[in-house]
What does this fold into?
Amino acid sequence: MTQTMDGLKSILNDAETTYEQGNAEIDKALERFASAKAGLFRDDGSAVYADPVYREKMAALTEELHAVADRVASQAEAVIATVNRLQEAEHTDPIGQLTLAQQQEASARAAFVREDSALLTLPALTRRLVGVSAAGENKPDCYLWSRYGRQRVEAERTKSEESERPLDPTTRAQLASLIDAITALELAVGATPALTPRQAAQRIHAARRFQQGVRERVGDVDGAKAGLVRAMLATGRYASLY
It folds into this structure.
C-alpha cells in the first residue's frame, strides 16, 4: 500500500472537516461567479456586451465555477476509496502482529478457543471477549478470541442466509455487541480493524450526499436548465415539470 493504515484512517476522521471546507470553497466560488456575472450588466439591467461576447464570457465563468466544484467533489472520492481499502482489511490476518513465540502459544490454545467460540451463546461469548480485553495485553488470547469471534459472526450470518430467514432484532443487537468486543481485541493485538458493512455504507452515503450537494449548488448557475424548462412548458405539452 502507498498509504499506511493510520493515514487511511485519518482521511475518514477528517472527512467532515473536508466537507465543511469544501462547502466553504463553493460558497466563495459562487460569490465570485455572482459578482462577475453582475459585471456583465449595466445598472439598468441591459447587457454590457453583445450577445456572442456575453455568451463567451458566461461560458468562461461557468467553466471556472464547475472546475472548482469538480475539484471539491473529487475530495469525496478519496473518502470512498479509503472506505474500500479499509474494507479489504477484513481479509487480512492480524497474526502478523504476534511474535513467533506468541504465534506458537496461540497455536497451542486455538482448538479450545475455537470450540468455545462456536458453542457459547452470543451474549456469553461477548462477555468472554470483554473479559479477555479487560485482563490485559495478552496478545495470543486477544488474537484467538477476535479471530474465532469473527468466525462466529460469519457463521450466524451464513445460517440466516441459508435458512432464508433474516436475523431477528435481538440477534442483530447481540452480533453488534459482539463485533464491538472483537474490534477492541483487534486493537489490543495491534491490527487495524476493518470497517463493518454498516460503517462503510454510512461513510459512502455521506460522501455521495456531499457530492450531490455540490453539484446541485452549481448545477444551473448559467440558467440553462431553467431556460429549457421554460421552453418545454411553452410548447403546451407539459402542465408542469415539478
